[in-house]
Amino acid sequence: MKESLRRRDYRRYEFEKKEGLLLLAIVGLAILFLAWFFYRSLLGVPLLLPLGIFLIRYVKQKKGEKQRAELTEQFKECILAVSASLQAGYAVENAFLESREDMGNLYGEGSMIHEELEMIRRGLVINVPLEELLLDFGERSGCEEIRQFAQLFSIAKRGGGSLPEMIRTSANLISEKVEARREVRTLLSGRIMEQNVMRVMPFGIVFYVGSIYQGYFDPLYQDLTGRGIMTLCLLLYLAAIFVGEKIIQGIWSQMEGKGKPAKLAAMAREGILGKMAAFGEKIYEGIQNVRGRKAGGEKIRRCLESIYPEEPREELLKKYYGGKIGLSLLIALLGSFLALVLWAKGKTGAEQESPWMTIGGMGLLASVGVFFLMDKDLLDQEEKRKELLRLGYPDLVRELALYLVAGMTLRAAFQRLGKENELVAYACREMQSGQSESVAYEHFGKRAGAREYVKLGTLLCQNLKKGSNALMARLEEEAILSMEGRILSGRRLGEEAETKLLIPMVLLLGVVMLMIMIPAFEMMGA
């Protein structure tokens, strides 16, 4: 790509001069306000400077995400216009040139998509290939849909695929995805608004109480104890904001099919827990040698195999049960050590009545409870995994359909998908090891354990055996239906968010209670 044709990088948001100065002013005022509110002194400003840096980065990240979302929306309209021009008989290059006028009328000549189309026009004038221009745009855009379309366009151009059909299919599927994402964002907007209101409430309540009872909060700003309490309130307030943002981001990641379940505690291999797990594996091996058969029910085995498909079954069982034994032993040893310390104090007369037997018994019960509850943790992780697979299913089917319409074979498309999908990558490794395609696709569906993937595996097997010419139509229909299912899942996740978002609400309530109750106790003590 020639230097004169390079455009801005949408992956990194850059503030304009006025915008940057305005943001600095707002962040500075916010720091001054927090320093006054929590410390009534400018000495709190240096402590809050790291928070100011974080706020600037946070605003930059959010503005970048908003900019890329707008660019994706505009690109969707551009592809729809290109598809319409192709149906009217235009050549591909002329269709993009024609869409420039449409985008200028729709979004204005200063819009992002109009500027990019203008760069494409300039590139075509000096004989730069259209696929090179689109690949450059897709790389700079930071948008998955644009990058993928550019790659598909290049594949179809080189491989002799049907460009009009590929563009039409891309336009339809991108439209469905953008509409689904917009609806999910609408579902979450109510939760985000509630969080923003709750973040302002502590200030409103404190100002209301302070205006009625003058000097009520003075004890919080007069001595070291009061400063410590206000620092704790500040930390709780920041923790509430951080937890709320993490919950919202986690739900959004789940809706995009990009979330990952947490690692099982029994499979951890770090620090003292890892050493105890290794010791537990030796105990497990000894027990199995005595019993002469392997532990674990069939349900536990299936869950482990689905979560960790790369590892051999016996090695998985050894690690899992070794981790369970090791963690249980660690809890039991900690309880026993604490009980021993209390017993020793009781013997020396340091304490008249020592509850060492109670502590030891509680440690033993906790170790037994953890051992059995970890099976429930495993089953919960398997359900979370299936849910994430279901949420990621629409994107998988959509990408597979697009690769096929671009002219790739089914096996080549699967191998390309395997670069970003572990489940698909495992099926590709099966094929590389000599397994037939139909068996690999069948195992792919069963390994996922979700009905949608079993259906997809069966559809791919039928295509190989019967040579179905309707595979593309079936995949496109499946992508649209599964996207509707993602919207329903988004509604359910939005309802679950109400429960999870009680955590930051409780933290904010704790801030208000501390600031109101501590001065009240001071007055009662006086």
Quick rundown:
The protein has 526 residues and is an all-alpha fold. The chain has 18 helices and no strands. The longest helix has 50 residues.
What would you note in describing this structure?
There is one protein chain. The chain has 18 helices and no strands. By secondary structure, the protein is mostly helical. The longest helix has 50 residues, at 163-212. The radius of gyration is 30 Å and the shape is flat. The relative contact order is 0.09. The model is unreliable at 1-5 (pLDDT under 50).
Fill in the keyword field for this structure:
single chain, 526 residues, mainly alpha, flat, disordered N terminus
Query: Could you name the ranges where pLDDT drops below 50 across 5 or more consecutive residues?
Result: 1-5
Q: What share of residues are in beta strands?
A: under 5%
Shape: flat
Question: How many alpha or pi helices?
Answer: 18
Overall residue-averaged pLDDT value? 80
Q: Largest sheet at a glance?
A: none
Intertermini distance? 77 Å
| Radius of gyration based on Cα positions | 30 Å
Total strands: 0
Helix content: over 70%
SS-derived structural category: mainly alpha
Sequence of secondary-structure elements:
HHHHHHHHHHHHHHHHHH
Compile the SSE list and pairings.
Blueprint: H1 17-39, H2 44-87, H3 92-107, H4 112-125, H5 130-141, H6 144-159, H7 163-212, H8 224-255, H9 271-291, H10 298-307, H11 313-348, H12 356-405, H13 410-417, H14 422-432, H15 437-448, H16 451-466, H17 471-500, H18 502-525
